[in-house]
Amino acid sequence: MEGLGKNMIKGIMKHKNISSPEELLKTAGELGVEICICAMSMDLMGFKKEEMIDYSNLSYYGVATFIADAGESSIQLFI
């Protein structure tokens, strides 16, 4: 639908006074949030590292590494 869904979501976010994805990433970076991308999921879906967002604290993890790090952290979010 040529970007219609993306534009609809952006409109809803603006209407509900929710920060844009760009603003959320900027805030996350300022707070030191680490984003971990599942290497297996990337491989299964055919994504390449060059296609990922430009974010200073971005990591590529396998399942075992994620579980080990997540077990030592105070907060995790799995999407």
Verbal overview:
The chain folds into 2 domains: 1-33, no CATH class; 34-79, no CATH class. It is 51% helix and 10% strand. It has helices at 4-15, 21-31, 39-45, 63-72, and strands at residues 35-38, 58-61. A two-stranded parallel ribbon has the order 1-2. 0% of the residues are buried.
Contiguous runs where pLDDT drops below 50 for at least 5 residues:
none
Termini gap: 25 Å
- In terms of DSSP E residues, the strand content is 5-15%
Number of domains: 2
Quick take:
The protein has 4 helices and 2 strands. With 79 residues, the protein is mainly alpha-helical.
Salient structural properties:
single chain; 79 residues; mainly alpha; 2 domains; two-stranded parallel sheet; 4 helices
What's the helix and strand layout?
Blueprint: H1 4-15, H2 21-31, E1 35-38, H3 39-45, E2 58-61, H4 63-72
Parallel strand pairs: 1-2
